[in-house]
Structure to design on (406 residues):
């Protein structure tokens, strides 16, 4: 009761029917049956970049829902975390219960790795907390372009707005592997993602480390300390004691998972949610900055063509009227370019005041350069694609840096 828990392990034979379980998926070595939870897909709002599932056929969730966003790269364990969180929410992580439920199957790594997936759980009599929940997962965000992150934020905003005016986020769970000691990679990941949020979200950030060795200190902790990155609480999950379905294999694992999940949901249920109004402003300003840069690039291209035209006319038979006309056009373009540069500076300054992450282009480019070297040295799967994306981001940052110096 102190944790806000209504009951734990309240299990009866009718609970399977109450939860609307569908597929039998087998029994693990501890005699625990794994079943799939029936979820209804929102076909009407289905997009190529987002999927929404509900644990009822009304396709609605209460406006007091606790909204959790789990972000991280592919294969850091987000699917397992969602599964064990859902088992915990429905009180199925106790010793009395002889089955577990699976919500997320292993995603096809070759199928839409940048998908945003939303799992909605309205209030249910089998839940141990008196809340409804929305669990949102996003992949491929560390090495994503700013434009890609911006699109993800718009999708998140649209989902929150659609669901009975829900406009709150209770937790951003930053999921990272425990063996990640690359401080540059970690810093870039934090900055890239949190540059899309207003600064009022900083007290709602959690770090979830996965694949933790319970004996050794995870290297990622040292990296986090060195970077002095702000987050509310850090939770450790040893994924070697979790099957893909989210089913714990041994008693040590049960305690590890139970303690962490109780801690996470206790903190989230106590948290004052962030209303995302400031984040909406950040998203709008990011969109505005992208538009300005596109306009600048087009004006500069036009200016280069006009300068070429001026040079051509100078080499031809002198025609003062024609030359003056081209010079006037060039001067007009120059004024437009500097006007846009001043506008970009104002937006950039505003973003640094509003967002969680304060963007320093010069520092960020140094980090990106180190990431490119890291990818070249390690040559892991699809490293060339990641290098290409990082190089584009670096080029864009250099372009922006030159504009700010103009």
């Amino acid at each position: 009761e102190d944790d806000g828990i209504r009951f734990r392990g309240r299990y009866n034979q009718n609970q399977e029917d109450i939860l609307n379980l569908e597929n039998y998926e087998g029994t693990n070595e501890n005699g625990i049956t794994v079943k799939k939870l029936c979820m209804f897909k929102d076909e009407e709002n289905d997009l190529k970049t987002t999927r929404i599932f509900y644990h009822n056929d009304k396709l609605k969730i209460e406006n007091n829902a606790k909204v959790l966003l789990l972000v991280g790269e592919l294969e850091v364990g987000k699917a397992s975390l969602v599964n064990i969180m859902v088992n915990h929410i429905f009180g199925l992580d106790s010793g009395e219960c002889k089955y577990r439920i699976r919500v997320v199957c292993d995603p096809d790594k070759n199928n839409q790795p940048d998908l945003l997936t939303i799992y909605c759980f309205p209030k249910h009599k089998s839940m141990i907390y008196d809340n409804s929940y929305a669990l949102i997962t996003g992949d491929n965000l560390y090495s994503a372009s700013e434009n890609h992150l911006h699109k993800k934020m718009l999708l998140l905003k649209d989902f929150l707005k659609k669901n009975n005016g829900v406009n709150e986020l209770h937790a951003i769970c930053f999921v990272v592997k425990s063996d990640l000691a690359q401080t540059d990679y970690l810093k870039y990941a934090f900055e890239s993602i949190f540059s899309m949020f207003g600064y009022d979200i900083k007290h709602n950030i959690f770090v979830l480390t996965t694949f933790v060795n319970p004996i050794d200190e995870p290297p990622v902790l040292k990296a986090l300390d060195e970077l002095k990155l702000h987050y509310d609480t850090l939770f450790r999950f040893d994924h070697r004691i979790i099957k893909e379905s989210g089913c714990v294999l041994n008693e040590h694992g049960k305690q590890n998972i139970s303690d962490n999940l109780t801690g996470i949901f206790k903190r989230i249920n106590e948290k004052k949610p962030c209303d995302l109004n400031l984040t909406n402003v950040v998203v709008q300003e990011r969109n505005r900055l992208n538009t300005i840069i596109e306009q600048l690039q087009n004006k500069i291209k036009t200016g280069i063509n006009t300068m070429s035209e001026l040079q051509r006319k100078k080499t031809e038979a002198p025609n003062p009227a024609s030359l003056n006309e081209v010079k006037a056009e060039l001067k007009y373009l120059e004024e437009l370019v500097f006007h846009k540069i001043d506008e970009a500076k104002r937006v950039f300054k505003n973003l640094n005041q509003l967002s969680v992450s304060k963007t320093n282009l010069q520092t960020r480019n140094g980090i990106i350069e180190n990431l490119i070297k890291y990818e070249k040295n390690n040559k892991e799967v699809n490293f060339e694609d990641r290098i290409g994306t990082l190089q584009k981001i670096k080029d864009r940052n250099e372009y922006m840096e030159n504009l700010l110096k103009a």
